[in-house]
Every structure is written in C-alpha cells, then in structure tokens.
Amino acid sequence: MIPPNAWHSIGYSKEFGVGQLVSVRLLGRSIVVYRTGEGELVGIEDRCSHRFAPLSRGRCEGSSIRCMYHGLLFDRDGQCIEIPGQRSIPPRARLRTYPIAEQGGWVFAWGADDVAADHSSLPDFLSLDDKDFVFGTGKIDYEAAAEQVNANLLDFTHAAYVHPSSFGSSEESWGQARCSIKSVENGLSIHWWVPQSLSYDTPGVQMDAYVDNYLTYDYTVPGHLSMWARSYPAGTAQRLDFGAPDIQPLVTEYSGQSVCATGDRTSRYFYVWGVASSLPDAQGVIADRLAMASRAFEEDRIMIEAQQRVIDETPGDIPMIPNAADKAITLFERLMMKTSHQRQAGRKADVTKAAAIL
To answer: What's the superkingdom here (predicted)?
Structure first.
C-alpha cells in the first residue's frame, strides 16, 4: 500500500516554467501543476468542473488557469471565478487542490486531502544547486506497481544478476557483500560494503581495476532514496572488519532516487547522479555515469514489468516466500502500513470529534 499522506516526487524544478501547464499523475489522479509569476507552484486536479476537459490543455492567466474548452476560469484555490456568458457561479464549481513543495531542485505533491501536509517530512536529498557537485537527472516510467520498484531499491543483491553489463556487478562481489539496517525517522538507514567491485573510470583519480564500495543510503516513505557511494582500495572492507570507514575515500559520488505511484500498476522513477565538480572533465564524467545508470535502470524496468505480469496472473492465495535479503523490504512495508494507519486513525478521530460536537 502506498500511503497518500506523504510527499510524492512529481518532477524537477527545471520542468516547471512560469505559466507552463504540466500534467502529472499521482495515485491514479491527474494533476495540473503550474508556476505563478511570483514563482510559487500550484497543483489542481486536471479536470474542469464543467465538461471534465483537462485543464492542462488550458491557459495560465496570472495565478489562475482558464479551461480552453468553454472558457471557465479557476483561481489557485480551485474555485471557479468566471463562466463566460453567465453571472452566477455554482458553489460546487470547485476543484481539489494539492499542496506542492519545492526543495533542492525537486518538486513534490502531498497526496492526501484529509491529512494536513507535513513539511517536516520532506525527503532530505542533496540539493541540485550544490556547487560542489555536477548533477545529471533522468526518469523512467514503469508498467508496474510502485511497491515492486521500492522492493528493487531496498535489496541491492539483485545487482549481481540484473546489472553485470551496466554497473559491472558480479556474483563474486555481491556474494561477499555485508549489509546493516537500522530505523530512522520515517524510513530506514542501510549500509552496504561491496568488496571487489569493478571501478569506474574517473579522470584525476588513480584506482585499481577493483575497489571496495561503501554504499550508505536512507530510504524514506513513500519511496525516496538518498545515497552516498564511496570507493576505497580493495581489501579495505576486510581490514575494517566491515565496519564504518573513517578514512578518506578514493572517490565520492551521490545518487538521489524516488519512486512515484502514478497508478495502482504504474509508477514513475526519478533518478539523480552527482559527481564532484572538482574532477577534471566533471561534465564528461556525469554524462558517462548517467548513461550507465540509464542502461541499468532500463534493465530493472524489463525485469520488474515482467515480474508484475507474473504477480497479476498468480492466484492471491499463493504467497511470495521471503529470504534473508528481504529484511529491508519487510521493515519498509511495515512503515508504509504504519503511515497509512496514522491517516486512518486521524480520519476516525475527526469523525468522533464531529459527532461529539453534533
């Protein structure tokens, strides 16, 4: 279950220009998002109240939006404020609005209309404006539920079998990998040592063909990954007895990834890769990294969509049989359920309070 009462990634700041109408999908609904002249982002359901034409085919007028089918004008609060040729406006000519937040070059929508948006729970991605890094961004659509994409990102052991030709992963390196998991606010903190990993060509950095990679990432509800990847000389993990390193890495890279449930069986996956801006030809390095990541995530898409088709045709009384590597998946699923239950508890409390008043 994907809880609506959370911040869901819907795009990057650079995709939302002033006056530009952008239609996005979230939890089976279409939302039109636009930036006002003051720079603020507004989200309204992408449906005119009159004949249900999509407002994303309309026109932005200041902080309002006009439907270009019959000309109705809606303000930023979703209220119809003008109907051409008609003086009276039905009170019901009002559309649902969505809280939109913008942080560090990412754009998020709050999916619940019955729970107040909690800005303290916005994901803590490295800002795309950070001058110490050069970033590349991408996104890919899946014909698969967001839950399956989340599970993929919570268990990196699939890399040995899905990504040998893209990330250069091997069964040997992942066979030696060690993982630690602990709970953090609204998610999990996961640390991986992956010994004897294939090193990536990095101008200005001398590395052997194989390195030990130390991957640390937080994975928060409803599907945000913020990861640091640090490479060390081969043998470092063993020397440190697979403990947290306190020595300077050969190279440090960053990745922010996020899964948006666009529907019950569809999702959109956003990914960011960052390398140090101080590297020689940093722009060339990030182009290579992004191309590699894009190939890998296409490999994921093919596997996960095939998995989804099997899930859909498998009788509901046949369960998946978990193994030890599924610990993070199990813990995260519990967190998602807890978040959903918090929403339901809040709704029940509101009903009880209203009944007491009556």
So the answer is: Bacteria
